[in-house]
Write a structure and sequence with these properties.
Distance between the termini: 12 Å
Strand order of the largest sheet: 4-3-2-1-6-5
Number of helices: 11
Radius of gyration: 18 Å
Mean pLDDT: 91
CATH superfamily: Glycoside hydrolase/deacetylase
CATH architecture: Alpha-Beta Barrel
Number of strands: 6
Low-confidence stretches: none
CATH class: Alpha Beta
């Protein structure tokens, strides 16, 4: 079956993000979203979903790098700072999970299980699971997430593998918008690393549903109307997911978020992604893709 899913990460991380995600679903083409139960605006997200009577499918967005943990901080000392907040960067978490020994992996396992339990307590059906900054793809962490996904009857897990880009087309984009070069240089190493780890993930996810491919890793931070139209147009037959991060250009501060998260969340680019998700042009492009795949 051919299917193109548009998934918004980071529900629960900020009130403005919550509002943008629900608007993109209500007024646009957003298919589903992923909830960060450790996010400072998780309660706001749940209230908004209930008050808007939204039918958007929701998955669990595992976070071990940002937010206030579900577990008591004293039980996961390797993951939190002195304020009891999740604080490790991606590389630091990778090193901890891979070489930190049994005790570190037990702490990681404890917090992952706690986040699955916290999601269960929302009363929402668990549609899928993925990871903030794709941390669930770290092999040692992926195995722990899969264990909990099976135990919690989660039907699907994201495998963050994006096809290598058509460099000719991206070269034209950079010529027209030179600022995109910075995004490409920043995101390419992440795309390669996740593609490498995806081999382990494909083997380890046996018994869980997975999609054929994802898009939005290379374009993280720079999805415009034109870029989203291009991603939809180029999506092949099969089951694909486009990862988006809609938001509002409204500054919010939080003592439990890393500065990088705050900078990303409140960039004007987040509003550009929301604009793309509710634009008639993109809706028409998606309709054309669906029509083409039915032929």
């Amino acid at each position: 079956m051919n299917r193109l899913i548009l998934n918004a990460d980071d529900l629960g991380i900020a009130e403005s993000t919550n509002e943008a995600i629900l608007q993109a679903h209500r007024d646009g083409i957003l298919t589903r979203c992923s909830l960060m139960v450790v996010g400072p605006a998780c309660a706001h997200a749940m209230a908004a979903i209930r008050s808007w009577q939204s039918q958007i499918p929701v998955g669990l967005h595992i976070s071990l790098t940002s937010g206030r943990p579900v577990s008591p901080p004293e039980t996961i000392p390797s993951l939190v700072n002195g304020s009891g907040v999740l604080h490790r960067g991606f590389a630091s978490l990778w090193a901890l999970a891979t070489w930190g020994g049994r005790s570190a992996r037990e702490e990681i396992s404890r917090e992952i299980a706690a986040q699955f339990q916290a999601f269960a307590e929302t009363g929402l059906p668990l549609n899928h699971v993925d990871g903030h900054r794709h941390i669930h793809m770290i092999p040692a962490i992926f195995d722990l997430v899969v264990q909990q996904a099976r135990a919690n009857h989660c039907p699907e897990i994201r495998i963050s593998r994006e096809p290598f880009p058509k460099l000719a087309g991206r070269g034209r984009d950079v010529i027209q918008q030179p600022a995109q070069l910075v995004d490409l240089v920043r995101n390419l190493p992440k795309l390669w690393l996740l593609a490498w780890w995806s081999r382990h993930a494909r083997r380890g996810a046996a018994g869980l549903q997975t999609l054929d491919r994802v898009y939005g890793i290379l374009d993280s931070g720079c999805i415009s109307i034109d870029r989203l139209q291009q991603l939809i147009e180029e999506a092949p037959a099969g089951r694909s997911e486009i990862i988006v991060h809609p938001g509002l250009a409204r500054a919010e501060t939080s003592p439990v978020l890393e500065p990088g998260d705050c900078e990303f969340l409140h960039s004007p680019r987040r509003f550009s992604e929301l604009t793309a998700l509710i634009s008639p042009e993109v809706r028409d492009q998606l309709h054309q893709w669906n029509q083409r795949m039915r032929c």
